[in-house]
């Protein structure tokens, strides 16, 4: 068992980082296929050739492993085009960001399944997912407020901004789901139509 | 065991219908809480006080039971305001229809979870859910085409109609999910904003 050897003579820092990345990659696959509730730490450990204790050592708990997976998803999403854009440009970049998920089907499947599963307050990931939505809605609201303050769009009340960022989030979640169900779905064209329509409604230029 | 009695002396037709409705109600609760993959026929049978064979007798299979549950959901949705509306009025009624889901949280949770789970082609409900999306998109497209032909909105190409009905579906799915995650979400206001904006973009009157 490679596990025993690793536990006895823990490698240098870089080895630990690589092992952690490998475990996150396997967890993505397993959660992506079975969901968070259905994907067990035992399956992940078996596929990685490590034991349960190693997973706990790296991530603390199943929720900790999910957090690491979703952080990796966020990192890739930001790398896919949301660095150095703000205000209206942030919204204009969203069709590309969504289209890039086509290269990460497993991750999109994972996130879509977990968000839906965790809509039940009894789900162990409920607090985590609700916090994540709150945080993402706040990010979108910040960019919209910035566009208002820059004079790029008309004034929007806090209640209007809330509606706008929820609709953007709904369009992205919903189009992601439709693309998962039918890979012929033109996610880029749909999100572009939505972005242009929203910016026009805001009197954007 | 009430089960044995029922099997020996099957009641009149009305009793069978009531029993079927009762089983569907319990299946809704169990699938709503555990998802389709996680909700077992055994749990449903136990909660209903019947045995596995009775479930199979009524529904044929787990997929058959899910079909019955989703048909019941469709029936309630239509009763909630989509009878006798067509063309643009169909779209104008959607905020109310979505808002009515607030009274059926379990069903919305069930549908949202199953649609996400079944996005994986390996899921036993995948074919069923993709067929259901195809059918619902066609219904929306029919109403939009009707509005075009009535001269209520500008001409839309088939490709544009496809984008429009996918965006409507995304907004409804996505806003449903956000309301499940945060019951403070004003689903009626958000969907109303979307409907009015879309109709304005179509040059609707």
TrEMBL record, chains A, B:
Q: Which residues fall under the DNA-binding region feature?
A: 40-59
What is the designated name of this protein?
A: AcrR family transcriptional regulator
Record flagged with keyword DNA-binding: yes
Top-level taxon of origin: Bacteria
Cite the InterPro entries for this sequence. Answer: Homeodomain-like_sf, HTH-type_TetR-like_transc_reg, HTH_TetR, Tet_transcr_reg_TetR-rel_C_sf
Which species is listed as the source? Arthrobacter bambusae
* Database matches in Pfam families: TetR_N
> Which UniProt key words apply to this protein?
DNA-binding
Q: Name one GO molecular function term.
A: transcription cis-regulatory region binding
């Amino acid at each position: 068992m490679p596990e025993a050897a690793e536990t006895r003579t823990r490698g240098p820092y870089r080895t630990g980082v690589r092992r952690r990345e490998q475990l996150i990659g396997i967890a993505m696959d397993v959660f992506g296929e079975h969901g968070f509730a259905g994907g067990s730490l035992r399956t992940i450990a078996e596929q990685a050739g490590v034991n349960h204790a190693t997973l706990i050592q790296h991530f603390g708990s199943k929720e900790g492993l999910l957090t690491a997976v979703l952080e990796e998803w966020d990192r890739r999403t930001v790398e896919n085009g949301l660095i150095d854009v703000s205000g209206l440009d942030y919204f204009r970049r969203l069709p590309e960001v969504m289209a890039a998920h086509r290269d990460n089907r497993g991750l999109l499947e994972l996130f879509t399944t977990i968000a839906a599963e965790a809509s039940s307050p009894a789900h162990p990931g409920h607090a985590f997912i609700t916090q994540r939505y709150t945080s993402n809605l706040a990010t979108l609201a910040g960019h919209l407020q910035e566009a208002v303050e820059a004079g790029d769009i008309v004034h929007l009340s806090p209640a209007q901004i809330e509606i706008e960022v929820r609709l953007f989030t709904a369009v992205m979640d919903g189009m992601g789901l439709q693309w998962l169900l039918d890979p012929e779905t033109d996610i880029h064209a749909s999100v572009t139509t939505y972005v242009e329509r929203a910016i026009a409604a805001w009197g954007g230029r």
